[in-house]
Write a structure and sequence with these properties.
heterodimer, A: about 280 residues, alpha/beta, eight-stranded mixed β-sheet, about 50% helix, elongated, B: about 290 residues, 11 helices, 8 strands, about 15% strand, binds guanosine-5'-triphosphate, binds magnesium ion
């Protein structure tokens, strides 16, 4: 059988790696990340001796899967443990580009917190977009939680600040701050986000990314991380058949853990991110 | 780093006094890398790479054109062939149905399109056909106000086809009616059934797929699913004011044959521009 007892040479590795590369690209793993992982795998395998019971294909695939798993297995935060162990009120700010699912994700997390007997306050710090206040108000009403909002066009930082003060005064446990979607290339809006952070001083900043996004996910995560520092990532819309390779790209690019994936529009459609599950999904 | 793609390739071509096999391979390799990095469907990128190579090696440059100009011309031709070149929405009475994945910019684009037609002398109205998303009606209502057009919706009603039928009845004297629908994806059987029902009620002259420039490998398959369900006739690519290259959107167009008519360049009503294929392609390829 091809490979038994032989050494791995570049020309043997290349074609097998090619197929695996294409699989990762088709799963929306960013090209630069695929290439870096490929280099890593090649360095590990070049001139390695293959044991008698393995095929070249198996050895290479295993090496690639391990490299992928390594990029995904970042030191993670258990959100609920963090909340449990942090002085109340715990404030969490949600950021990301337009339409990724920030507002809906906040509703889901709020729902889960309530199930765990925490009290929540929502902050409507998207004071710009049409219907943003109304959208979050609907969620607040359904969840039975307080929404702190000012008028449309008001200062997002002031809303966040107010919400934290309100939570402190009323002994509420968690403040979830919804912010407006913004392009990472829009300097004014990135500055506005920095100001919200400066004024509110959130305990956690969570980047909400769209699992449907391709290579741009890396630039998004990097720019948001540079601007305000991301503590964790939530990837939404993975139910749209998106393989979610951006989980790997983002993890690799900013080294921040994926906390959850969004699997639908309902309040229960939020699942813990699992790197084994992701690795299977990427190679499946 | 992303900028290297076509600029690099073109430098190689420009510096060559003739086109030789190795140069073509190198140029095409650079273009392929740029295509994949732009989120183009991998198979489509590989397919196009083959085509580019074949054409560059077998076609003689037309009279008066250098080989290097010819290679550039081939690349643009193949892309324009997919995307469409200067296709416009006609300024005439019509019903338009907006469809697409979650969060792509459908509702915002309804307002932009509404203002576009209204400004050009066509009495335009919007119908709030999204009966699922929280405060979808309120969002479209504010968008319509900014656009200066009337809106019909039925906030308590969950049956979208019913709302659409009522809206079309109310606006039957209007020239252009634009129907907003909720986000959905191909795996949601009930929602695919719904959009088919809405289409049946609306009998739209145009079905516009709104796609975000940042969507990756799912753009093609999802566009195909929308096309199979309701027949997409035009495409609008949104959020090109970001850094996304739009290769996924191009793949969506390849799957539907629905030419791009507009691009979304921001969140305001005025942030709608006629599609410029040359600009889009050069941006995609770097
Ligand atoms: N299928 C699916 N849809 C989702 C998921 N998360 C959010 N959505 C939908 O995506 C659309 C956008 O969600 P929002 O919560 O408004 O996104 P956002 O990031 O707050 O948007 P902006 O505030 O406009 O930037 C809505 O229709 C949501 O229902 C998910 O995990 N799966
Ligand atoms: N920067 C930018 N933002 C845009 C553009 N088009 C829409 N948006 C923003 O993208 C987000 C989503 O837009 P919506 O119009 O709610 O998207 P949708 O497709 O109707 O979303 P669903 O109905 O939930 O599926 C909002 O924050 C919009 O302001 C654009 O061209 N550029
Ligand atoms: Mg929002
Ligand atoms: Mg909408």
């Amino acid at each position: 059988v091809d490979g038994w007892g032989s050494k791995l040479k570049e020309n043997k590795i290349e074609p097998i790696l090619w197929d695996l590369k294409v699989a990762l690209l088709e799963a929306d793993v960013a090209l630069p990340v695929v290439e870096e992982i490929e280099e890593e795998v090649k360095d590990n395998l070049l001139n390695k001796k293959i044991g008698r019971k393995y095929s070249i294909e198996d050895v290479i695939e295993t090496a690639l899967k391990n490299a992928v798993k390594k990029a995904l297995d970042l030191e993670t935060i258990d959100l609920y443990d963090f909340i449990k162990n942090t002085e109340k009120p715990v404030s969490i700010m949600f950021v990301g580009v337009n339409g990724t699912g920030k507002t809906t994700t906040i509703a889901k997390i709020s729902h889960n917190l309530i199930k765990k007997n925490y009290s929540c306050v929502l902050a409507a710090s998207d004071t710009f977009r049409a219907g943003a206040l109304e959208q979050l108000q609907v969620h607040a009403n359904r969840l039975g939680v307080k929404l702190i909002k000012h008028s449309k066009g008001s200062d997002p930082a002031a809303v966040g600040y107010d919400a934290v003060e309100h939570a402190r005064a009323r002994r509420k446990d968690v403040v979830l701050i919804d912010t407006a979607g913004r392009m990472q290339t829009n300097t004014n809006l990135m500055d506005e986000m920095k100001k919200i952070k400066r004024v509110v001083e959130p305990d956690l900043i969570i980047f909400v990314g769209d699992a449907l996004a391709g290579n741009d996910a890396v630039d998004q995560a990097q720019k948001f991380n540079e601007a305000v520092g991301i503590d964790g990532v939530i990837l939404s819309k993975i139910d749209a058949d998106a393989k979610g390779g951006s989980a790997l790209s983002i993890g690799h690019a900013v080294g921040k853990p994926i906390l959850f994936v969004g699997t639908g529009e309902g309040y229960d459609d939020l699942e813990h991110f699992d790197s084994d599950w992701m690795t299977d999904r990427l190679f499946g | 780093k992303l900028k290297d793609g076509l600029q690099n390739a073109m430098k190689k071509v420009a510096n060559a006094s003739h086109i030789d096999k190795n140069l073509v391979s190198e140029v095409v390799k650079d273009v392929q890398r740029a295509m994949i990095e732009s989120d183009m469907n991998v198979n489509l990128a590989l397919e196009l790479t083959q085509k580019l190579k074949e054409r560059a090696l077998t076609e003689k440059p037309p009279a008066g054109m250098t080989s290097k100009e010819h290679v550039i011309k081939i690349i643009y031709e193949e892309f324009v062939n997919i995307l469409g070149d200067g296709v416009e929405l006609k300024l005439r009475p019509q019903t338009i149905m907006m469809v697409g994945l979650y969060g792509m910019g459908k509702t915002t684009t309804c307002g932009k399109l509404g203002a576009y037609f209204q400004k050009r002398g066509l009495n335009t109205a919007l119908v709030a056909g999204d009966t699922h998303r929280p405060a979808a009606y309120e969002q479209l209502e504010q968008v319509a106000e900014d656009a200066g057009v009337p809106i019909y919706g039925s906030p308590g009603e969950s049956r979208a086809p019913k709302v659409v039928r009522e809206g079309l009845e109310k606006f039957k004297e209007y020239d252009v009616v634009i129907i907003d629908t909720s986000g959905r994806h191909s795996l949601q059987d009930e929602l695919i059934k719904e959009i088919k029902r809405i289409r049946k009620v609306a009998q739209p002259d145009e079905v516009i797929l709104t796609i975000d420039a940042s969507v990756g490998q799912q753009a093609g398959p999802q566009a195909e699913a929308f096309h199979d369900a309701v027949g997409v006739t035009k495409t609008i690519i949104t959020k090109i004011d970001g850094s996304a290259k739009g290769g996924g959107a191009l793949s969506a167009v390849a799957a539907t044959d629905a030419p791009v008519v507009f691009v979304g360049t921001g969140e305001r009503i005025r942030d709608l521009e006629k599609f410029d294929p040359k600009r889009f392609i050069s941006r995609l390829l770097g």
